[in-house]
Amino acid sequence: GNKSEPKSVPRIGNRPRSAIVRNRSGAWHFDQIGPVDDQKTNDYDPAQNWEAYMNYQRFFEDAIDQLHAERRYRVFADLERIAGKFPRAIWRANSRAEEITVWCSNDYLGMGQHPDVIAAFQNAAGKMGS
Questions:
Q1: 19, 33 contact by CB (below 8 A)
Q2: Cys-Cys with 16: which of 34, 80, 119, 123 at CB 3.0–4.6 Å?
Q3: What is 78-109 written as a DSSP string?
Q4: Is the pLDDT higher at 116 or at 24?
Q5: Does residue 43 contact residue 12 with C-beta atoms inside 8 Å?
Q6: Which helix (H) or strand (E) holds 56?
């Protein structure tokens, strides 16, 4: 085989197919290494188990690590709405809790606590299940 190919590249017959690799910036992408649709040979076996060639755990750990390194890993605030006290909520972080005001949500008008909206939710849950 070609000595410049990574040893972990899946092969069918004598030809490498494709691999998930990192580009120069470190981002993962799917790379076609060899001719996938070469009509001259008939050594393609779609039933071959490709999972044996892919370390999914490492792939996803590396992807998460890259998001952390780029400061793009999203962490959601642990907020607990206080029924009847819109827009107040309890914010929990680092083993402590603090009451805060939340204006930046999809429920900025407080309609999620309106009696008619709650009744509609209860009616739908009664008919359809929760």
A1: yes
A2: 34
A3: EEEE-TTSTTEEEEEETTEEEEEE--SSTTTT
A4: 116
A5: yes
A6: helix 56-69
- Bridge partners of 37? none
Cα distances (Å, whole numbers) of residue 15 to 4, 19, 20: 13, 12, 16
Residues in the chain: 130
Whether cis (ω within 30° of 0) applies to the bond prior to 87 is yes
Residue type, 56: Y
Mean pLDDT of 64-80: 92
Check residue 109 and give its pLDDT. 82
The answer, yes or no, to whether residue 72 has pLDDT greater than 70, is yes
Mean pLDDT for the chain?
76
Tokens standing for 70?
Answer: 């780029």
The answer to whether 5 touches 33, Cβ cutoff 8 Å, is: yes
Q: Which residue in the block uniquely carries the two structure tokens 């000595």?
A: 3
What average pLDDT does range 87-97 have in this prediction?
Answer: 93
User: At residue 99, what are phi and psi to the nearest 5 degrees?
Assistant: -80, 130
